[in-house]
Amino acid sequence: MTPANLQIVRLSEALPNDLPALQAEAAAEGYRFVEGILEEWDAGRYLVGDDRNALFALYRDGILAAVGAVTPDPYDPVPDLLRIRHVYVRPASRRGGAGRALASALVQQGFALASRLSLHTADAGASAFWEAMGFQPDASGPRRTHLLVR
Q1: Can you give the three-state secondary structure of the chain, one letter per residue?
Q2: Has residue 67 got a pLDDT over 90?
Q3: What pLDDT shows up at residue 141?
Q4: N or C, fewer C-beta in 10 Å, the chain?
């Protein structure tokens, strides 16, 4: 259950105005993967009509707190596998349920369409978070660190 002060929105018509600020925070921490959202958005990946490509924003008290996507796995394009990608939670919103709420929405979206979800973590903290969400370490696929099977 998502806490009352959190709102999750699927993005399909416009990116949040404050996405550049979130992207700058991610870059300051050394995470460049949020930039991939802009490239994929410009390429039309997240348009309405393709549920296999879904981009979500999480707002805490009306302020953009996190983003994340689920897409076909670009490194292992088999039909029963989707990949959770570009997940970033602003430091001020960590440890308050935002990451868990966003991850749950991404997993729910992914499992509605595929039986397996993959991801690649950037560091030990991210690995611990996703393992707490039920993902298992897995290096059997290209550029994959974790896998969750329905």
Answers
A1: CCCCCEEEEEECCCCCCCHHHHHHHHHHCCCCCCHHHHHHHHCCCCCCCCCCCEEEEEEECCEEEEEEEEEECCCCCCCCEEEEEEEEECHHHCCCCHHHHHHHHHHHHHHCCCCEEEECCCCHHHHHHHHHCCCEECCCCCCCCEEEEC
A2: yes
A3: 74
A4: N
